[in-house]
Specification:
The chain is an alpha/beta fold. Helix content is about 45%, strand content about 25%. The protein is built from eleven helices and nine strands. The chain has helices at about 1-25, 35-50, 60-70, 80-90, 120-130, 140-150, 155-160, 170-175, 185-190, 225-235, 240-245, and strands at about 25-30, 55-60, 75-80, 95-110, 135, 160-165, 180-185, 195-200, 210-215. Strands 1, 2, 3, 4, 5, 6, 7, 8 and 9 form a nine-stranded mixed sheet that branches. Helix 2 links the parallel strand 1 (about 25-30) and strand 2.
Length: about 250
């Protein structure tokens, strides 16, 4: 009986230690740039709800996958649906939860003249008239942008005046400081960018949506808090925040 009491005490201590360790570093999140504006708006209430602080590392989904594969510690990953499916197949994350999606848009330097992008012909003229455009070379929207340029028949011309950046944050900075005239990326990445204003979404025939999902690390020592965080980010009350940040529920 005495031995059972000792074992029970040891188990309780181990569980307590593990919980203390998990809460010590809070909930570590790897988050794609495309969902960050929504996340930043919701996280204060979510921290209060789960009772733990949240720390983040952001970047393109491509760069974040590289971090995961290199052994980066995390409790929750929020990336494009394709990236999360890849991590799921590799056994890196648990069940994925859809969070929202964003379409592609055009941004300009704050205060600059607003160009016409209302239809294919207007968009083509705007691109050809622009001194330079920029977007993330490793971004989820790049394949759609490249296809659009091909469809418009201006791919070769635009290649010469396109500045490819590592991530939408750097691309947006190029427009804000005047290095590039137009930014092409997700609307959810344009709206929060300092010194940049949204011109509008791409015309319907060129529009594509990038979806985001969240999941806990399959080996996280703080999985319960991670799941609670994802629930907080995916509940019915977040629709207004998604809309305000250029996103919508899937």
């Amino acid at each position: 009986m005495r031995m059972q009491t000792v074992l029970a005490t040891l188990v309780a201590v181990l569980i307590s230690t593990a919980a203390s360790h998990a809460q010590g570093h809070g909930v570590r999140v790897l988050i794609s740039n495309g969902f960050k504006a929504v996340f930043d708006d919701l996280v204060p209430a979510c921290e209060k709800s789960i009772g733990q602080k949240v720390t983040t590392q952001s970047g393109t989904s491509t760069s974040l996958i590289e971090k995961v594969n290199a052994g980066e510690a995390f409790d929750v990953a929020i990336m494009t649906t394709e990236a999360m499916e890849s991590l799921g197949k590799a056994g890196k994350v648990a069940t994925r939860t859809p969070l929202g999606r964003s379409g592609i848009g055009i941004g300009r330097r704050a205060g600059a003249k607003k160009p016409d992008i209302g239809n294919a012909e207007a968009l083509k003229k705007t691109f050809l008239a622009a001194k330079s455009v920029t977007y993330a070379g490793d971004g989820a929207s790049r394949p759609h942008i490249d296809k659009m340029m091909m469809t418009l028949g201006i791919a070769d011309v635009m290649t010469k005046k396109t500045i490819l950046e590592q991530g939408s944050v750097r691309a947006a900075s190029r427009v804000a400081n005047g290095d590039a005239e137009l930014l092409i990326t997700l609307v959810s990445e344009i709206l929060p960018a300092p010194g940049v204003e949204l011109v509008g979404p791409l015309p319907t025939q060129f529009q594509n949506y990038v979806s985001f999902a969240g999941a806990t690390n399959a080996k996280s020592d703080n999985a319960a808090a991670g799941k609670s965080l994802i629930s907080c980010l995916s509940g019915p009350s977040v629709a207004a925040t998604l809309k305000a940040k250029g996103m919508e529920k899937q």
